[in-house]
Specification:
Length: 418
């Protein structure tokens, strides 16, 4: 196993110790873009702030051409095979295009209708399920995790709030060398949540609970078990009925094993035992579970971006109570300038949401409440370009053009797993 494969294994997101939305590339030139007709814009939720129209450039032909060029440039430089970009601003237009290829071996084009693995965007769903249980008084955010899950080091001191806010101090199992070896030697194998926790709990805590921020997938595996304990149901079932169906998300799921609905793109990664690039569509994401195993598509993520940032469903009803939504969006600073992290969401210069990355796939789903603007980026590689994930490169390039006062410029470095 090479150092290259041990340095970046992640369920996607803000980097080790501090938090960082990362970036990466792959081998394949950016093919021509394909415009895709977007579905009609849903009405904005009543809880959205008033639009800051001056914060967003109108998506006229000139701006559209600039976005096209920026996306192609990132794809060429980072050697990204395929990208889907969606951008929507009420009264300022929309931009939905696919670029490049979904499968390098066949040349099949990327398409906005494809399913994608969304990595750590899963965290927004798991934490939403937790908050809904808190709204119903089935859990308390300041409850110790040991009340629901046995065998957690410092389980009588670590709260559910600290888990959701990445401030537990627990060791991240994806940084365990034995875990990395097990996964890269057989990426189709299945892991149970308890197996994942076993890797984490073999290490001492990094710091006392609540002392500082450290991005950690162990936290979300624990929250997945908390949701199951408090609801009495498997996490996938609870998410479907309590989060996905109320939000009208019909193409989003926490799959069983390696299940990946079609149509989907092939994914490409260098997070392999020998460091060589491999196809990943058939890999099993069970190792990421409640932290990063979900699947979705562009249309669903468009709805979800606004729902997470406002706590309001498309029909205007509250998904999360205003009081808890306010707590979710309280985003204390991290060690990364301009970036705060709340309860399963980050705030990067006003953009609220999450990114996702796991072998072969990356995503970015963010919402700018002040301008009611949504940005979605989906791509079929996670190979870093000069230490930055391609989803971040694309997010920065697009927002520099469209929202120059709110540039998604979160710096990052790969999450260490050695």
């Amino acid at each position: 196993m090479t150092h290259a494969c041990t340095r970046r294994l992640r369920a996607g997101a803000v980097a080790a110790t501090a938090a960082a939305i990362l970036t990466a590339p792959l081998a394949a030139p950016a093919a021509g873009a394909t415009a895709v007709a977007a579905s009609p814009a849903p009405p904005p939720p009543s809880a959205s702030p008033s639009s800051g129209a001056d914060e967003v450039r109108t998506l006229d032909p000139g701006v559209t051409r600039r976005i096209d060029r920026a996306v192609r440039q990132v794809m060429d430089e980072a050697r990204v095979p395929g990208v889907i970009v969606g951008l929507w601003t009420p009264g300022r237009g929309q931009y939905v295009k696919s670029f490049g290829v979904a499968d390098k071996s066949t040349g099949r084009g990327m398409s906005a209708g494809l399913y994608s693995r969304i990595g750590s965007e899963t965290k927004t769903f798991t934490v939403t399920a937790l908050l809904r249980l808190a709204d119903r008084h089935k859990v308390g955010l300041d409850d110790p995790v040991g009340k629901y899950v046995a065998g957690v080091p410092d389980g009588d001191r670590i709260t559910l709030r600290q888990l959701a806010g990445m401030r537990s101090g627990l060791f991240d199992y994806t940084s365990d060398a034995a875990f990395v070896k097990a996964l890269t030697s057989d990426p189709r194998r299945s892991f149970t949540p308890r197996q994942l926790l076993g890797y984490a709990f073999a290490h001492p805590a990094l710091f006392p609970p609540g002392r500082e921020f450290s991005y950690c997938n162990t936290n979300l595996v624990l929250l997945g078990l908390v949701v199951e304990k408090a609801s009495g149901r498997p996490l996938a079932d609870h998410l479907r009925t309590e989060v996905l169906e109320p939000a009208g998300l019909h193409h989003t799921l926490l799959p069983s094993g390696a299940y990946f609905p079609r149509p989907h793109p092939q994914g490409y990664t260098d997070q392999t035992a020998n460091g060589e690039v491999a196809d990943t569509a058939g890999w099993n994401p069970s190792w990421a579970w409640a932290a990063g195993a979900m699947v979705s598509d562009l249309d669903d993520l468009r709805v979800w971006a606004r729902t997470v940032a406002t706590g309001v469903l498309p029909d205007g009803r509250d998904l999360i109570s205003p009081a808890l939504q306010k707590q979710r969006l309280t985003t204390p600073p991290t060690a990364v300038p301009g970036a705060g992290y709340g309860l399963g969401v980050f705030d990067v210069h006003g953009w609220i949401g999450h990114n996702g990355s796991l072998p072969g796939y990356e995503s970015l789903t963010v919402y700018l409440p002040s301008a009611r603007t949504t940005l979605i980026v989906l791509l079929n590689t996670d190979i870093a370009h000069q230490g930055v994930e391609p989803s971040t490169l694309l997010g920065e390039a697009i927002t520099k053009i469209v929202t120059p006062g709110h540039v998604f410029d979160l710096p990052g470095r790969p999450a260490a797993t050695h």
